[in-house]
Task: inverse folding
């Protein structure tokens, strides 16, 4: 029995959330030392670009062609979207408690739904509204139960909100780019622009790698391959088949998976509130499969 396009899109978005959740643990470990958020994003984007280039050359070199008239759009998408999404999220994690940082980033579905309604005239159906409320409430419950002391500050909160807005902007711009470009092309140039941006404007991207340590080399490689290229490609593929709001709501599965991973492998507590929150997110994703969503 073949799956519908919407089901394939939801599976792809869920798989992206799974990979992001796993790589998020690596990101936290990497930033415990001298590695800054901007530097980590530079490595992710640069290595991701280098991983995608041979794939594009082998699969179809014509996918590397980008009309000059489209360059300004990709410059904005790679900087205001991808580069700032990763930087503001990692910076928020450093400034706030992890749970609050995640909650603020995953306000992205709210911004996307509002944009789709105001500018694209996509209606907010009762089912979509219910899914959005369930996803945000569930994400909040999971984030509230995460281990660690509660920390907050105005700067950190602004960074967290910026992470959500940037993630929403990247999703919407990627959805638009897919009207005229393939998934590999969109992701390659997004990563390339992000890498160039942080190489030029990052505070410390070219510092020696010696102080990072051999183990962290492997972790950076993992984050580039399975925390950047693979999940963002799945995310882009999901946007090909679904509304941006549906993909972003499904992405709230990431903190649920992260909490489960921490419970299984890091011996952290999984509270009843977090279980209830996970149930809300799963119910939200289930509702998105209804035709009226």
Result:
């Amino acid at each position: 029995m073949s799956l519908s396009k919407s089901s394939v899109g939801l599976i792809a978005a869920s798989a992206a959330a799974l990979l992001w959740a796993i790589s998020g643990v690596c990101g936290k470990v990497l930033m415990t030392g001298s590695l800054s958020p901007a530097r980590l994003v530079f490595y992710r984007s640069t290595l991701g670009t280098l991983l995608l280039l041979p794939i594009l050359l082998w699969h179809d070199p014509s996918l590397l062609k980008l009309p000059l008239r489209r360059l300004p759009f990709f410059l904005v998408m790679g900087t205001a979207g991808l580069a700032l999404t990763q930087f503001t999220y990692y910076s928020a994690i450093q400034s706030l408690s992890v749970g609050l940082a995640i909650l603020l980033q995953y306000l992205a579905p709210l911004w996307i739904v509002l944009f789709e309604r105001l500018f694209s005239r996509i209606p907010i159906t009762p089912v979509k509204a219910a899914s959005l409320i369930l996803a945000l409430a569930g994400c909040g419950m999971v984030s509230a139960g995460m281990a660690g002391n509660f920390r907050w500050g105005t700067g950190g909160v602004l960074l967290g909100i910026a992470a959500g807005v940037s993630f929403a902007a990247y999703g919407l711009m990627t959805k638009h780019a897919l009207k005229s470009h393939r998934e590999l092309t969109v992701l390659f140039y997004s990563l390339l622009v992000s890498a160039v941006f942080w190489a030029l404007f990052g505070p410390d991207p070219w510092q020696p790698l010696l102080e990072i340590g051999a183990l962290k080399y492997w972790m950076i490689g993992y984050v580039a391959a399975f925390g950047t290229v693979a999940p963002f490609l799945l995310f882009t593929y999901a946007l090909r088949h679904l509304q941006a709001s549906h993909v972003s709501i499904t992405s709230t599965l990431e903190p649920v998976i992260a909490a489960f991973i921490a419970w299984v492998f890091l011996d952290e507590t999984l509270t009843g509130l977090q279980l209830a929150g996970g149930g809300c997110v799963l119910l939200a994703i289930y509702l998105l499969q209804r035709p009226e969503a």
Summary: Residues 81 and 199 are 16 Å apart (CA to CA). The chain has a mean pLDDT of 87.
